[in-house]
């Protein structure tokens, strides 16, 4: 009897311990992967985004971890393969990708950017037509503003160029200033930041109409409660002294003017992207 009593007590304690462990596991925050487009080199991209997502994870109670590839195309491939749940991107606005169901959450309150085709300030090239049959570098095949918009303009202008990819903006700029290529397709915001970081100067050959900054987007697999918690933390970041300090610090690291806050991202903010895809060549869809 005595042995049987202790055996029952052991089973009860084991059962209660299992229930406690299960409850703890249920209470533990889920971890989601976050992939921002590589606008800089991998190390600089990580140094920009890690402090932001660490802050957001702490404030929202939803764990975010960074997942970036070697190039912007690699990072976008994670999104398309459904390997990540949050993305900071402008690569999901063509018709096929919109069907994946990713939803806009927030964007930085930066002014709209432009697609630009640039050369070095001291280049003998002063007119876009002079790039005909020359090598022109772009950050990557997925770069909407810096490649798709700029290359579409070259095609429409019947200026044939030899396309080279640099992997990201910094890689593209390095090829331009080393003399390997004659021109570069860029996002105007990042060209300005590169000038501040590296004291390198450009000549503008062409600029597009404006496009809004990239947006934080969420996969349809993320529960609404978690998506809302992350959204709320981003929206409150600029009003919190701790959050504002993070924004200032990471902006200084990449030599961009600090944005003030994250603001809601709406479908109408990205209508210019959708409109581009309505008439873009099939090769740029």
Describe the protein:
The strands form two sheets. Strands 2-1-3-10-4-11 form a six-stranded mixed sheet, sandwiched between helices. It is globular, with a radius of gyration of 23 Å. 45% of the residues lie in helices and 20% in strands. The protein has helices spanning 2-27, 42-60, 72-80, 95-98, 144-156, 169-177, 188-198, 224-237, 241-254, 271-279, and strands spanning 31-36, 63-66, 86-89, 103-108, 113-120, 135-138, 162-165, 183-187, 202-211, 215-218, 262-264. By secondary structure, the protein is an alpha/beta fold. It is built from ten helices and eleven strands.
Report the uncertain regions. 1-26
From the structure provided, what is the oligomeric state, counting identical versus distinct chains?
A: single chain
Q: How are helices and strands ordered from N to C?
A: HEHEHEHEEEHEHEHEEHHEH
Number of helices: 10
| Mean pLDDT metric | 91
**Topology, number of strands:** 11
Silhouette: globular
Helix content: 40-55%
Bin the strand percentage.
15-25%
Biggest sheet, open or closed, and with what strands and sense? 6 strands, mixed
Q: Order of strands across the widest beta sheet?
A: 2-1-3-10-4-11
C-alpha end-to-end distance: 77 Å
Radius of gyration: 23 Å
Q: Structural class, judged by helices and strands?
A: alpha/beta
List keywords for this structure.
285 residues, alpha/beta, 6-stranded mixed beta sheet, 5-stranded mixed beta sheet, 45% helix, 20% strand, disordered N terminus
What is the structure about, briefly put?
With 285 residues, the chain is an alpha/beta fold. It has helices at residues 2-27, 42-60, 72-80, 95-98, 144-156, 169-177, 188-198, 224-237, 241-254, 271-279; strands at residues 31-36, 63-66, 86-89, 103-108, 113-120, 135-138, 162-165, 183-187, 202-211, 215-218, 262-264.
């Amino acid at each position: 009897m005595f042995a049987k009593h202790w055996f029952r007590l052991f089973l009860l304690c084991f059962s209660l311990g299992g229930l406690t462990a299960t409850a703890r596991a249920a209470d533990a925050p889920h971890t989601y992967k976050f992939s921002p487009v590589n606008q800089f080199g991998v190390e600089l991209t990580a140094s920009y985004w890690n402090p932001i997502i660490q802050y957001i994870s702490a404030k929202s109670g939803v764990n975010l971890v960074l997942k970036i590839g070697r190039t912007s195309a690699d990072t976008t491939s994670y999104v398309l393969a459904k390997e990540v749940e949050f993305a900071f991107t402008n690569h999901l606005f063509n018709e096929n990708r919109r069907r994946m169901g990713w939803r806009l959450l927030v964007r930085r309150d930066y002014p709209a950017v432009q697609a630009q085709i640039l050369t070095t300030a001291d280049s003998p090239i002063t007119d876009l037509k002079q790039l005909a049959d020359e090598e022109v570098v772009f950050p990557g095949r997925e770069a909407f503003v810096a490649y798709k918009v700029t290359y579409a303009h070259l095609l429409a202008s019947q200026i044939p160029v030899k396309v080279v990819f640099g992997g990201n903006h910094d890689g593209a700029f390095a090829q331009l200033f080393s003399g390997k290529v004659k021109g570069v397709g860029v996002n105007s915001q990042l060209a300005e930041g590169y000038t501040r970081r590296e004291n390198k100067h450009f000549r503008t050959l062409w600029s597009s109409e404006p496009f809004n900054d990239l947006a934080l987007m969420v996969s349809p697999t993320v529960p609404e409660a978690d998506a809302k918690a992350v959204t709320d933390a981003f929206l409150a970041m600029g009003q919190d002294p701790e959050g504002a300090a993070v924004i200032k610090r990471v902006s200084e690291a990449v030599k961009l003017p600090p944005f003030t806050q994250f603001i809601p991202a709406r479908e109408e903010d990205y209508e210019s992207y959708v409109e581009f895809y309505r008439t873009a060549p099939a090769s740029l869809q």
